Give the backbone structure.
Amino acid sequence: MVPLHGWGRTSSTSAHLTEIESISGAVSALRSAEKGRGVVSRGLGRSYGDAAQNAGGTALDVTKLNRVLSIDAEGEPATVHVQAGVSLDFLMRTLLPLGLWVPVLPGTRQVTIGGAIAADVHGKNHHSQGSFGNHVLSLDLLMANGEVQTLTPDDDTAPLFWATIGGMGLTGVILGATVALQRTETAYFLVDTDRCSDIDDLMARMSEGDDAYTYSVAWFDAVSRGKNMGRAVLTRGNKARLQDLTHKLKRDPLKFVAPSFGTIPEIFPNKMVNRITAKAFSNAWYYKAPKHRVGELQNITSFFHPLDIVAEWNRVYGPNGFLQYQFVVPFSEHETFRRCVQLIVNSGHVSCLNVLKRFGPGNPAPLSFPMPGWTLTVDLPIEDGLDSLCNTLDELVVAAGGRVYLAKDSRLGAATFAKMYPRLEEFLAIRREVDPEGLFNSDLARRLNLH
Amino acid sequence: MIDALGTPQSLLLLGGTSDIGLAIARRYATGRSLRVVLAARPSDRRTAAAAELTALGCIVAEVDLEARDAASREAAIEQAFAGGDIDIAVVAFGLLGDPEQAWTDPELTVELAEVNYVAPVHLGVLLSNQMTVQSHGRIVALSSVAGERVRRSNFVYGSTKAGMDGFYLGLGEALRGTGVQVLVVRPGFVRSKMTEGLDAAPMAVNPEEVAEATVAAVKEKREVIWVPAPMRFVMSGLRHVPRPLFRRLPI
């Protein structure tokens, strides 16, 4: 038994961690787990809550299923067939020299393909290009009966395909997938940056200008009150073409810039992220951004994954850990959205890494998170009273017809969850059909009654 | 599952009509559809407790438990876990008895020993067997400061609490690394149905205060707490008072 926790380092439970290196290994792991408390796949452990935990049962470590099986660079679109344990980081390093680009990148590259599919992750280009599931052409699923089935989005396997996209590993073990790729001339971005004075200014600018950019995201200040409330830095950009690069960068236009400043040591006490440090951070982050700058060249890491520079950054929050609250509400509910921001800012709970974005259309997956609307993410250290803040936010989000993101969640109740995901029954019906005994199980599934 | 903020999904009260146990249930009941299993003798009190918790939004199951009957204890635990994982189990029942009768009437002596020691110890083992299978969960044992240094004035009760307190501290050690944790709660004088008619001792507390401290301790993953908290230092002092002096103290 090994204690396992998510990225938020909360509610750890113990499970048998079984490494699988082959399909036959996965099948025999399923067989031996049949009489116990079920199986869930686990990748790099980047979901914040209990999605890849299975108390008393089996967690299948898929990170050794890490081969890129084939690349079709000439096809239209170009595609790659990979095993589920391949990380997006490794995949990008493999594809970039060929001028190929992974279509959807979340806030870290340290996630597996299996995890990206199971959580249907999204990135800064959701408003223009959708979530990860939109780019999956087929996936290989090991089912409860021990068979491997290849699923596609548009034949008779489509219902199970879409239930698996965003299905949090509860339909089977994702073994591999074929993903459509984009072509790129460079690994750089042309980025426009704007400081916005408050939340209204920010939302107005995003509503008007986002369509001109493939990528768009805003950081905002959730600590300052009064006239600075919700002041923000908006960064938007497009893929740079070869002609956009400087002479120096043209020598190696597809260079993968991924600096590493080491690993955060396990020395931080609780309450290191407090009002004082958060205020200092927020001021620094706001004022280091230019007021208005156009066409700056940025590399992958600085534009997409600034947090990947240091490993294990979640340790900054101390042993009590933290949670991430990410929700979306429809565009028509921008008033609710503003109220939620106000509630967070005035709550006394502090959050540094606050991300605001406009989503585009969702996809057919019943448990996929994105829907057209405003999404907000805040990182909150675990402290007394946080439950009542989150419960109040839940109520506002539900009333607005919005929802909370399962990959981030570590605390929703089953009843609230059911209200947020109106297509839950559709998902459960498919799950019961392919896994009648409930072989696939996780702490998240128990918490949310996904049976 | 207990979520990231310490909120449980299911709660088992062994001693389903205990004032402290029900106060704990009420604290956890807010806002969630908590599954509560009330294990107690069938009675109007149990029915009323179930109705009250149902009105608070809980999904309540009533299970019969006769504390002095080993078969009943086994059946109660089995029924409680048949409905799914139990996140928090509170061993809440106990018997105070008349302290003078307790050491002169052999029947009452045995009853106190069985209800306050044999039953909690048996249930502790049954609980730990179930919870190690699920690899998560908390066992909360309601002990008493009376067991920390046993006094002449209620030494039969005190000795049973000393025994069960020691057992649950040991169980907590034995369960380290299994994902199951044990919390021993040592209240001072609690104004409850158990102490009805008695004069309240100094630093007396209400069941609600014990519940509040217990919920906080579960969240903080503590192993032993005193209620009120300063009682810890009082007892620490009393433990070291020499016997000739101790017997002269008006306690």
Notes: The longest strand of chain B covers residues 180-187. Strands of chain B lie at 10-14, 35-40, 59-64, 88-91, 137-142, 180-187, 224-227. Chain B touches chain A through 20 residues (CB under 8 Å). Residues 10-246 of chain B form a domain with the Rossmann fold fold (CATH 3.40.50.720).
